[in-house]
Amino acid sequence: MSNLPQANLPQVKVGIVAVSRDCFPESLSVNRRKALIAAYEEKYGKEGIYECPVCIVESEIHMVQALEDIQAAGCNALCVYLGNFGPEISETLLAKHFDGPALYIAAAEESQNDLSGGRGDAYCGMLNASYNLKLRGVRAYIPENPVGTAKECAELLHEFLPVARAIIGLSGLKIISFGPRPLNFLACNAPIQQLYNLGVEIEENSELDLFESFQKHEGDGRIPAKVKEMEEELGAGNRKPEVLPKLAQYELTLLDWIEAHKGYRKYVAVAGKCWPAFQTQFGFVPCYVNSRLTGMGIPVSCEVDIYGALSEFIGTCVSDDVVTLLDINNTVPADMYQESIQGKFQYTHNDTFMGFHCGNTNAKKLTSCSMKYQMIMARALPEEVTQGTLEGDILPGDITFYRLQSTADCKLRAYIAQGEVLPVATRSFGGIGVFAIGEMSRFYRHVLVEKNYPHHGAVAFGHFGKALYEVFKYIGVPVCDLNFNQPKGMLYPTENPFA
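Below the sequence we write its predicted structure tokens.
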């Protein structure tokens, strides 16, 4: 069950097309397709899949017929199912001419009692399928273990859905930014060539354009209803009620801008400006509004972090849940580790750190929340113009820290690290949590520092490394630049073996 409104997320419908080599019994593919569908529906129901009944694809003509059928049925993702060896040309042309992500899986043999007339040889056929996909330059998702029983293939099909959702989402995404980046934020550089390579549109605006639109929303008749929404969400945490009308005005400004500017694209993410002049001109900080839009399935990154917004959107698609963007921020003090972590959790001190941002994490992902002022900004500005952060400790539980980034010379790279937020009181400010990731200090030095990643990382609430890894591979991140937190004994290329 989704935790998000679905208006800004793709709905996946996978067309399942069985293929057969003409020198094998067609009945093998027919019956194995029926068994796959039955296994899937028994566990997951009928939603999100479509069984192509027109034909078993044995030829190029069959391929065209199958494509026309699944397109007419509204399918935006494809599963090519090798019920037997399969026709290597026709089955790869399916993916070549289908406009959407494709999965290739194959049927295992069922019984030792039927290894003559009932043997399908799909284990061999998958080799030919992968070879021909490469020859044609066609991208497809082939799982780690792509050949299995009906139940095993049903699981592979289900695991494909979040991957497909992210790929479809990227093909229809526009990132709307308001910038430029603040001074000293070169780390969040965003070469746009790779956005276009991914099929993502980018609309870059001045924050002056945003300010003009905000002023035009003064007195908007929808503001009182928005304020009421915010009051209900904040509850006892509504510590700054005087700023809510301005925050409501700003939220309406962004929502109207998105609707007016998304153009022909279906999905939107926002990279927003929040300092240094934002507070003094708008009269607040936008953190809480950013958190609310992210909770609507419209990710908003801070500090005009365009690839941060892109990463958040991918995580939203994969997890079908709220995400956040945090600074990989500060170490856990030794006394906090000794008092609250050591002996209670299987983590060394070097596995822990604190993830923080001013107040952009959605209320659903905080143990409790309070509307406050931004302490760092208030050191140099009047406190009243820094109101608008949502503060609280981040919910304990499994997380995935990840990021997709283009380097300054326009090369894609990414990292993924699974871990958890520990149930440890942070005793600090902002939206913040005590994070634990195995071998974090090595990952920090030999991936985050060595590969020149910015300090912002996206956070998905759950373990989604497997799906994210497949998404990043599918969109073209080289495996050598798809980094993860390597376990002890597995050295990074830059790691000193004598250290």
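The chain has 16 helices and 18 strands.
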